[in-house]
Amino acid sequence: MLTNNPTMNPSNRNPIMYSVARRVLAALALGAVVITAKADYPGGVLAAGPLLYYRLNEPVTPFFDVATNSGSLGAAGNGSYSDVMHLAPGAIVSQPGDAAVNFTTSGDMSVPFQSVFNNAAPFSFEFWAQPADSGTTRCVASSIKVGNSGWLFYNSFTAGKWTFRVINSASANLNVTGGTVTPGAWHYIVGVWDGSTNRLYVNGIQVASGPAPTFLPVSDTTVPLTVGGRSDGSFLFNGSVDEPAFYSNALSPSQILAH
Fold it and tell me: Measured between alpha carbons, how far is residue 49 from residues 77, 124, 143 in Å?
């Protein structure tokens, strides 16, 4: 019987791998469209060691409207909001009080340039996004000097799809595109550059990848890292964003799926 197989016996299952396997099957069964964040999502993010991590749940708008960095860079990585709506319903529905920031194509959250998150080493950036529309090109997050260096994420650069772009050492755009943009639904999006390949994950599943043997980071100190729009203030996002995080390493597929 199957229960006599030690790999199938519940008492012998590796709980982490079993949880990951269940999430893979659930994502596949749902077409990798609907997925929810775990109740302990913040703890899982912090355990992975992000340099930058923004809960985006500030309860009131302070005078300077500060976006608090919970990552290892600390207050040196704090950002600032401009013309956003606070306390929108967040992506972690199982965590009471979770909140997000809503963008209405008129503002963003920006983090001043620092070389520590602009270098040519492998990196990952993740976030939850709830777009209000699909079909119009909008930028969800970026650290980019357009046509020169950096990275970004688009909603509907290709209509109805997600795009992760890195710029290589020849200042050429390297785009990977996939997944479906569903207005009103939360999507978990991750972009990874591992030193040789550009990868895009949607709801825990890799949906696109492409060769990217080099990456040219932003060196212009006037260019910020932004959430809710492109670094140059264009292609502003329409919808809510929650839990963005930057890692100075390439997250593994199992780490991404575990979120």
Answer: 14, 11, 20
Dig out the tokens for 38 from the structure. 């775990």
Residue boundaries of the structural domains of the chain:
1-30, 34-258
Contact criterion met (CB below 8 Å) for 188 and 35:
yes
How far is 115 from 155, CA to CA, in rounded Å? 27
pLDDT tens digits for 130-179? 999 999 999 999 999 999 999 999 999 999 999 999 999 999 999 999 99
DSSP character string of 111-163: E---GGGSSSS-EEEEEEEEES-SSS-EEEEEEEETTTEEEEEEESSSTT-EE
Q: Which residue has the tokens 């967040």?
A: 90
Q: Which residue type, as a one-letter code, is found at position 124?
A: S
CATH 3.40.50.2300 fits 34-258, yes or no: no
pTM, rounded to two decimals: 0.86
If we measure between CA atoms, which residue out of 106, 32, 114, 34 comes closest to residue 71?
Answer: 114
Residue-wise DSSP of 177-222: EES---TTS-EEEEEEE-SSEEEEEETTEEEEEEE-S-------TT
Supply the DSSP symbol for 224.
P
Give the separation between CA 150 and CA 117, rounded to whole angstroms.
11
